[in-house]
Amino acid sequence: MADTTAGASPRKRIGFLSFGHFQAAAGSHTRTAADALLQTIELAVAAEELGVDGAYVRVHHFARQLSSPFPLLAAIGARTSRIEIGTGVIDMRYENPLYMAESAAAADLIAGGRLQLGISRGSPEQVIEGYRYFGYQPAEGQSDADMARQHTDVLLRAVEGARFAEPNPRPMFPNPPGPLGIEPQSPGLRDRLWWGSGTRATARWTAEQGMNLMSSTLLTEDTGVPFDELQAEQIEVFRQAWREAGWQREPRVSVSRSVIPLTTDLDRAYFGGREDERHDQVGILDGVRARFGKSYTGEPDVLAEELAQDAAVQAADTVLLTVPNQLGVDYNLHLLESIAAHVAPAIGWSPAPEGR
């Protein structure tokens, strides 16, 4: 749950979200996969010192981006002490859910219970039906989305500690009585699973499963209203369904935003003049009409006012800020410092308390 003080609104959390791009191109600070991985760790360490609440990574296969999150998250967890570590999101079509449950628990234990595990059906792929190369394909009459939810069901039960495996009568090591489950287990991880939802219908399903809601800058539906209002409606559908399901804990909700305050000549050289990105866009994605949220680029005071009026930002407890990771650690730390100093206070954020 978000931090609160008497008579005050809940404290908003902010985190950075990196795609982990790497490419040997002019101007890139992440020319190799090693650069992208090691710089993500360094940025997380620096962000924690700044008081930022979360370090999150996107996961994409068959692309020069981050693809195997758990070694990276474990490394961040070992180098930090407070900041949340997370994914946004892991494509469950590609996952062996039992092996994933083991890896997630190990990373969470190394981090002392700070893993926020974002999962989903996934985004459009780099290759056609890439999950088939990983050894998975939908059963007859099943869609790839069905398969992702089936994998998710197995993951949830494994993380909850389900014991289902028949023990060997002559094991290498003594077994406790009864069926066995995956090890290790990390207490509390089940409550820190999130589903990346792109519609109001999947937001309702997310609540019914008892997962937190993660919503990005893309919704795979369009009703004609501004993006932030449609996303706020999605959040309300989720919270109403959560109440109806009778879950006893308070859920968390995150939204993603691209926020670039222009405070230096370098900022303006990189990102100035992008007026076409400051408006919602509507298009067709995988045959479905989708709405893309705008980017927030401009003078800090203007961005602060705009974000304070963003309905979904106000409705969420966590805002994930996408970072241009190929520009390097120093520039991205400057970006986070600018947001922390000039923009984030307007949406209810303050630096994380020491030791939290």
From TrEMBL:
It holds the Pfam family Bac_luciferase. Residues 22-261 form the Luciferase-like domain. GO terms for molecular function: oxidoreductase activity, acting on paired donors, with incorporation or reduction of molecular oxygen. InterPro entries: Bact_Lucif_Oxidored, Luciferase-like_dom, Luciferase-like_sf. GO terms for cellular component: cytosol. It comes from the Bacteria. PANTHER family: BLL6902 PROTEIN, LUCIFERASE-LIKE MONOOXYGENASE. This is LLM class flavin-dependent oxidoreductase.
